Amino acid sequence: MAKSQQTFNKLEKEKKRLKKREEKAKRKVERLANSNKGEGLDSMIGYVDEYGFLTDTAPDPSKKIKIDASSIVIGIPKKEDMEEEDPIKKGKVSFFDSSKGFGFIIENDTQAKYFVHVSGVMEEIQENDKVAFELERGLKGMNAVRVKKI
């Protein structure tokens, strides 16, 4: 007589497969029972209150603020509307190596540090000199150019 082809491992796998199918069917039935389909638009609408938070209640119409749409400015203000900034800045030479031909200047107002090259220097400068300079965009940031002693 021949032995059965069903092994213990095959039976266990088949049981697991059937159990998964049953669980999947239960979850499907549960989802269908709890679904919100057909409840209408009111259950999906959210409102924003006067503080910017989302709520499910409609805002109070008495707290509504009327805003004139023509007063809203979209975009960047034109250059003529902005104040003209003085291009000449004042600062102090924090470091300058005349043999290598570069150094750094610290601006008085913002305490920002700017690179200065000997090609942008109009007069001979040394460390701790008070200078006036203009800024120009370089490869690695803003550079001080047209540097003069004060």
What does this 3D model show about the protein?
The protein is an alpha+beta fold. It has a domain at 89-149: OB fold (Dihydrolipoamide Acetyltransferase, E2P), CATH 2.40.50.140. It has one helix and seven strands; from the N terminus they run αβββββββ. The chain has one helix at 8-34, and strands at residues 47-48, 54-55, 89-97, 102-107, 113-117, 130-138, 141-149. Strands 3-4-5-7-6 form a five-stranded mixed beta barrel. It has a two-stranded antiparallel sheet with strand order 1-2. Strand 4 and strand 5 form a beta hairpin. The N and C termini lie far apart (114 Å). The mean pLDDT is 87.
Keywords:
OB fold (Dihydrolipoamide Acetyltransferase, E2P), 150 residues, 7 strands, 1 helix, alpha+beta
What is the topological layout?
Layout: H1 8-34, E1 47-48, E2 54-55, E3 89-97, E4 102-107, E5 113-117, E6 130-138, E7 141-149
Parallel strand pairs: 5-7
Antiparallel strand pairs: 1-2, 3-4, 3-6, 4-5, 6-7
Q: What's the number of helices?
A: 1
Low confidence ranges: none
Strand content: 25-35%
Order of helical and strand elements: HEEEEEEE
Widest sheet: strand ordering: 3-4-5-7-6
Rounded mean pLDDT score = 87
CATH class of the domain at 89-149: Mainly Beta
Provide a compact summary of the structure.
It contains 1 helix and 7 strands; from the N terminus they run αβββββββ. It has one helix spanning 8-34; strands spanning 47-48, 54-55, 89-97, 102-107, 113-117, 130-138, 141-149. A hairpin with a 5-residue loop joins strand 1 (47-48) and strand 2.
